[in-house]
Amino acid sequence: MAATTKYIALKTTVPGPKSAAVLDRIPQATPRATSVYAPLVVDHAHGSLLTDIDGNTFIDLTGGVGVLNVGHTHDKVRKALHEQVDRFLHTDFTVVPYESYVRLAERLNAHFPGGHPATTVFFNSGAEAVENAVKIARAYTRRKGIIAFERAFHGRTLMAMTLTSKVHPYKAGMGPFAPEVYRVPFPYPYRCPNRHGDPHHVCDVSCYAAIEEALTIQVAPEDVAAVIVEPVQGEGGFIVPPKSFLPWLRAFTEKYGILLIVDEVQTGFGRTGKFFATEHAGITPDLLTMAKSIADGVPLSGVMGKPEVMNGPGDSQIGGTYVGNPLATAAGNAVLDIFEEENLLDQAVRQGEHLQARLKAMQGRHPVIGDVRGLGAMVAMELVTDPKQDCVHLPQYKAAWRCTRFTGMGPKSKNAPICREWHGAN
């Protein structure tokens, strides 16, 4: 099904009467946690265009929250799903296996960063993949501790929510959280404490020393099973660490016999111009989590890793009823066909270069744009009140507390930014 136009076309006010009628039913039918953003109700979508039930067509810039890297209802994905629906819908792979699961695992294994042999197991969501990566790491190492980073987002189930750094709206009132999780700083060049006002500052090993220090203060390294890291932080603000960071982190984990889990749920499947963002660093992780654009919107996720690590859990210790279901694996194989045939990685590079160039040109004209950053098509700009002001450098805060979310200037002092979230020693 294709959208009826190739451009934005508004036929009614927004929301239109049909959309408004459905939107009015949502508060009575669903809890407030499912509040919606867009003032419209979708009818059909194709590529980057979305048409609502009133006939209005929009450019969809949400991408299903990072899910639609090959676009809405790609013809190959639709065809694969229709063919699978006519064959069978479910068996549970571990009860009665099917070839599409095996083929998708084989094809993904060939993309494992660093070229190391790998095996893959499938799940339903990114959070499930993270939960199971932690289980696999603990089973293999026989250790308990997990290291996560400030500003990280890893999901909303218990372990994934514990690993997630952002308190509001994800964690407030949701404790107690999973034990044996420890948090360390993530290199954030634009707001690095070592920047000292230098606009050309590049984080290096002196900046990473805080990670090792935080680890040794909080937990014995020999008790840590794994470090989990996003190659580019997504929910944290599209924070791109320096090129030296992941190689340093790989060496750091190997020094202490700790596994390295890279969370590629947001960054994977071409979003940064490589199939997996970890490839930019030239390292091989021990485990890799993936989801979102793996199956063009059909729920599917996975954990990929070195075979010896993946074999840490015993028979039937990981799995689930619907994991790697046949509809999802059919869609996943179609997505890989699209990547192979449509050169999407080069497209991501070109789009990212164009977007960064345009945003940096805007930055030169508008001081409110403090930073433009990105990797491939994963690009962001950071809006600030004063580009020369960084609240981590203010004397009244630097002793024990550090702002982790800057929102603007406070009403009582022209030199005191408001910080929504603080990281402190107490």
Q: What's the number of helices? A: 11
Alpha-carbon Rg, integer? 22 Å
Structural class: alpha/beta
Strand order of the largest sheet: 4-10-9-8-7-5-6
Globally, the shape reads: globular
Strand content: 15-25%
Mean pLDDT: 89
Fraction of helical residues: 25-40%
Q: Major beta sheet, specifics? A: 7 strands, mixed
Break the fold down into its secondary structure elements and pairings.
Blueprint: H1 17-29, E1 42-46, E2 49-52, E3 57-59, H2 63-66, H3 75-85, H4 99-109, E4 119-123, H5 126-141, E5 145-149, H6 158-163, E6 181-184, H7 205-218, E7 224-229, H8 245-255, E8 259-263, E9 287-290, E10 301-305, H9 307-310, H10 326-342, H11 344-365, E11 369-375, E12 378-383, E13 401-409, E14 417-424
Parallel strand pairs: 5-6, 5-7, 7-8, 8-9
Antiparallel strand pairs: 1-2, 2-3, 4-10, 9-10, 11-12, 13-14
Helix pairs in contact: 3-10, 4-10
